Amino acid sequence: MAQNKVAGPEIERLIQLLAKLPGLGPRSARRAALHLIKKKDQLLAPLSEAMGVAVEKIGICSSCGTVDTTDPCAICSDPKRDSSVLVVVEDVADLWALERASATNAIYHVLGGTLSPLDGVGPEDLNIAKLIERCEGGEIQEVILAINATVEGQTTAHFVMDQLAPLNVNVTKLAHGVPVGGELDYLDEGTLTQALKGRTRF
Amino acid sequence: MAQNKVAGPEIERLIQLLAKLPGLGPRSARRAALHLIKKKDQLLAPLSEAMGVAVEKIGICSSCGTVDTTDPCAICSDPKRDSSVLVVVEDVADLWALERASATNAIYHVLGGTLSPLDGVGPEDLNIAKLIERCEGGEIQEVILAINATVEGQTTAHFVMDQLAPLNVNVTKLAHGVPVGGELDYLDEGTLTQALKGRTRF
Ligand SMILES: [Zn+2]
Ligand SMILES: [Zn+2]
Prior knowledge:
The structure is a homodimer.
Chain A: H1 8-18, H2 26-38, H3 40-57, E1 59-60, E2 67-68, E3 82-89, H4 92-100, E4 106-110, H5 128-136, E5 142-145, H6 151-164, E6 170-173, H7 189-197
Parallel strand pairs in A: 3-4, 3-5, 5-6
Antiparallel strand pairs in A: 1-2
Bound molecules: zinc ion (2 copies).
Family (chains A, B): Belongs to the RecR family.
Function (chains A, B): May play a role in DNA repair. It seems to be involved in an RecBC-independent recombinational process of DNA repair. It may act with RecF and RecO.
Keywords (chains A, B): DNA damage, DNA recombination, DNA repair, Metal-binding, Zinc, Zinc-finger
């Protein structure tokens, strides 16, 4: 549609905005736009409305940094959560993944990225000061660093650990090992080595 | 997010609706929702608005069947178009593709699908009656069947041709052959045979 505007600027604009979604290129954005237009009442109108509601209601939790319609978020304000254990994640997507797995009943802290000096991302660009502040409160006993096993993730984990060292909290990290259902043959050597090192009684 | 609603029903609903877009599964819908929420002012709000405008303004052209904000559409009402030649396509996406290619200055007719007895799609479910009506008007000299070279597409093309036979219009179809930039080695035998049959002087 770039060269030849056949369908009015309104459709063109819809396609251009859809193309900015992760996972949609120009071609799939056109397909998505057409699908939406064809399903105007069943999909386009409800989605437009859901987005409007999201614009109005969704914000960042001032305590943990996740996104929600309330502040503090549903997790931070849930009295059934174990607020003595704090799980530190890079991104809201990681928090969602842990929640989908019902992996923990702890509370969270979202860093909002990883340290990356080359990209100009320093400690002040991440949600680290607030993490220290929460840990100084006295209620948190353990901080679990659930940070991706990438170079940037591990650099960030080490930095956070150094910052937490003077405080009275236990800092732990996720176990390495064979993914459940994983085949040894497909795993990298680092994972295999860690899985052997961390072996447990059968 | 299915099992564990952590982020309020508003985000959940946004994810569920996004997952209905072609090209987005549940996982990429979550990523898309998060991306939208993070870019609330730059992307979520404008997209919500663009969709609202689309809901309000976009409809089907009562002449050719394409989608546009005016009826008749921009193409049907363009006096610079050659309205003696009518290009018949299955879907609006095909019309858009031909327009992007600036392949023709003719006008269009969108069938809205192909005949498919097994799926219960008969002639009355397609935009065929209106096509006959347009061709009976006297202005149209040539009907180009730009219908996909699939079994259903070709069945549909034959049906349309039979319907148009009594009328005073020339019915043509797209040339088969080697795609521009295409390598012979990757083409199917049918295409190669058609490309040889339809050879032209160098
Ligand atoms: Zn929170
Ligand atoms: Zn039209």
